[in-house]
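Q: My labmate handed me this sequence with no annotations at all. I'd like to see what the chain might look like in three dimensions before we decide whether it's worth expressing. Could you predict it?
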Amino acid sequence: MDHPIKRDHSRFRKIVKGKVRENLRKYVSQGQQIIPKGTDKFTVPMPSIDIPRFRFGDQSQGGAGQGQGEQGDPVAGEPGENGEPGQGEAGEGEGNKELEVEMNIDELAKILGDELELPNIEPKGKSQIASTVDKYTSIGTVGPDSLKHLKRTYKQALKRQMSMGIYDPSNPKVVPIRHDYRYRSADTKIEMENSAVVIYMMDVSGSMGEEQKEIVRTESFWINLWLKSQYKNIEVRYIIHDATAKEVDEDVFFKTRESGGTLISSAFKLCKHIIETDYNPDEWNIYPFHFSDGDNWSADDTKLCLSLMDDYLLPNSNMFCYGQVESRYGSGQFYKDLSAKYGTESDSVILSKIKDKDAILDSIKDFLGKGK
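A: Here is what I predict for the chain of 372 residues:
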């Protein structure tokens, strides 16, 4: 039978997951910070819950509950009969705080998957990578102290003392000796796992403002979360571009803003170079994502982009995703060009228009809904 504390904790976790599920769109559209904590843990902010309680006033003041009282008489702590608040100095206590709870990748990903009805990803045309995994499924007589199995050791010592007739029920003292020690023992197994790389490309020219970058930041967080729940090994690379492209870290990716023109092909060329150098398509599931407001320098550069996609990026990727973030300065032409070339229902080129933060979840559904 479960301990009451364990049952209460389990009920609390269910309540927390239900609240996160109910408020998922708010977390996404309003930019509620879900903060990574370690490799697979996240801190999720939740409104604190105030437990109802009685408040007792000074007995010498009278009022409702003291003597007769009249309708409309103030209760302790309430405004007076004229509706004015009481007088006094500002308090020194702390205000209400949000409750923070920890959730792991699988818990958050399940909530996202259930909300968007996302299918599990089935890697296409990629070989699996073999890895060795140690699983402690048996008990041995040798091992380090860190793997000592205390319960099995005690049980072995008890059996030894009883068989030797030295166990005294009136003085049930069990002292293990070296021969009684038992240790958890690992069975090494070969497991096949898939690896994935996500390559984010973003236009950082002057027309891409802070609001557009915040949309990309939020969307990429949830995309990464889902992919990490699907692949055991995943890497993320970042490319920014205006007229030229360069690889940067995550922090620079979301903070850089340039004022030059836009040559999208510069990012596609660098993406191709990264794949050729570091990621064998026979061993990696490859996900290029490009975000922009749809402006490109010229029709000739768009033709070069399409050629790079047809000749290299599409044959070597699980899918190519383009997200057009709406901007008052962007023409949106690149979306039109991709749509004219590949259509809006292509399995290899996924297109999505992201009008504002409220459209982020729908865009994620566009990108991940095919299970590729």
